[in-house]
Automatic annotation (TrEMBL):
The gene is msrQ. GO terms for molecular function: electron transfer activity; FMN binding; heme binding; metal ion binding; oxidoreductase activity, acting on diphenols and related substances as donors. InterPro entries: Fe3_Rdtase_TM_dom, MsrQ-like. The keyword Repeat does not apply. Binds 1 FMN per subunit. Binds 1 heme b (iron(II)-protoporphyrin IX) group per subunit. This is Protein-methionine-sulfoxide reductase heme-binding subunit MsrQ. It is found in: Cell membrane; Membrane. One of its GO terms (cellular component) is plasma membrane. The chain crosses the membrane at residues 12-34, 46-65, 77-102, 114-134, 146-164, 170-189. Residues 46-157 form the Ferric oxidoreductase domain. It comes from Marinomonas primoryensis.
Length: 207
């Protein structure tokens, strides 16, 4: 536990990350989400899960600048925030929206395939949360980095999840894509596979 709170400011960071959750819970009990609290809470929790995933992706490139390097120490906290709000999003769907009704859930799985993209994102974020400790980093060695690069797949799943369910209002899907897609493109451009194979192929094609 002492290792987790290795910096005095971390409890304040945790408090800051829990504020959206506190707002959602208080709004629920105050009746702000009625008459359809399940749908409202799903939207809000999904937005915050997306915000934290965007923050995780954003931390990597910005931490390369010396003056911002210190923020990389909070990458695990931000990642755990993304995991927490994604789990909340799933729980709200299962309990408040579907009412734990198995036939309802099965029907949604058939009629709403975008759920699969969302569930895959939740599974990936869960795996990253479980392996985020320093003990797991030491145990996994170089494999830890390979596993945690799956955050980019989780981000792509979120984009697919949002666009796949669009009916008329594209606002949320568009704004999440505006932030996530460029960060994914930047990361792809920096991968060794891209530099080794794609750039060579592109240069040969231009000759």
């Amino acid at each position: 536990m002492a290792v987790f709170w290795d910096r005095r400011e971390k409890p304040y960071v945790v408090f800051l990350f829990l504020m959206p959750l506190a707002w959602m819970v208080s709004s629920l009990f105050l009746g702000r989400y009625f008459p359809d609290p399940g749908k409202a809470l799903m939207n809000v929790s999904g937005i915050w899960a997306s915000v934290f995933v965007i923050a995780v992706l954003f931390l990597t490139p910005i931490a390369k600048f010396t003056q911002f390097r210190m923020i990389s120490r909070y990458r695990r906290f931000v990642g755990l925030g993304a995991f927490m709000y994604s789990i909340l999003h799933l729980v709200v769907y299962l309990v408040l929206f579907a009412g734990l009704n198995l036939s309802w859930i099965v029907s949604d799985l058939v009629e709403k395939p975008y759920i699969y993209a969302g569930v895959l994102a939740v599974i990936i974020l869960s795996a990253l949360a479980i392996t985020s400790t320093k003990k797991m980093m030491r145990r996994m060695g170089e494999n830890w980095k390979v596993v945690h690069r799956l955050v980019y797949l989780a981000a792509a799943c979120i984009v697919a999840h949002l666009w796949w369910q669009v009916k008329s209002d594209i606002t949320l899907a568009m704004w999440v894509s505006v932030f996530i897609v460029p960060l994914l493109v930047i990361r792809i451009n920096q991968t060794s596979y891209y530099k080794k194979y794609f750039k060579k192929t592109l240069k040969k094609g231009l000759r």
